[in-house]
Amino acid sequence: MSDSPRLREWLAKDRLIASIKDPKAMDAFLKTDIKIAFLLFGNISVIGKFVKHLKEHDRMVYVHLDKIQGISHDAEGLKFLHRFVAPYGIITTKSHMVQKAKKLNLSTIQRLFLVDTDAIKNGLASMEKVQPDAVEIMPALIPSMVSELKLQTDVPLVTGGLLTNPNQMREALEYGASAVSTGNPGLWDISYTQRVGSEWK
């Protein structure tokens, strides 16, 4: 089984996740105190180098399988990723890839786009069936949906997309998100998601 307890432990103390979309953003990320990275760019020839670089800086790296060019979306593609790239886990929108990744002991985050009620219904059914270690909900600007989903699953919920300021991040956390993810380096400050007592920093 994948290491779900460890992910939950990390999310409990590190509620901000950096979504890295290009090499410049990766350099900016390594100057922060954020520990979890979602790697959203690259191809089969460079992804191993990127993951190794981040791991050498003691970061927990998730590779977004759907964004990496040249890696097939099947069992063989996952085996290659597991053996030669060795991220901590994967992100994908595809439930069958979550199932295959779990068999390889990769941690799994399933990305869901909440575009309508059918997407929510189907997303919940998929979560129940494949049991990812966490779910990333897109976009983040519908925090009320986080609280509704929290009533129906105990899977950790990460929310991301369209975030432009710290207040939006805090609102998502107030509504029950385990963490927020953002590709905006201007928001990569862990103080934005930390409390002192009942107050935000």
UniProtKB/TrEMBL annotation:
Keyword Metal-binding applies: no
InterPro entries for this protein: Aldolase_TIM (IPR013785), GlpP (IPR006699)
Keyword tRNA processing set for record: no
Range of residues in the leader sequence: none
UniProt keyword annotations, A-Z: Glycerol metabolism, RNA-binding, Transcription, Transcription regulation
Free-text function comment from the UniProt entry: Regulates expression of the glpD operon. In the presence of glycerol 3-phosphate (G3P) causes antitermination of transcription of glpD at the inverted repeat of the leader region to enhance its transcription. Binds and stabilizes glpD leader mRNA.
Protein name, UniProt field: Glycerol uptake operon antiterminator regulatory protein
Species, as recorded: Pontibacillus salicampi
Phylogenetic classification of the source organism: Bacteria, Bacillati, Bacillota, Bacilli, Bacillales
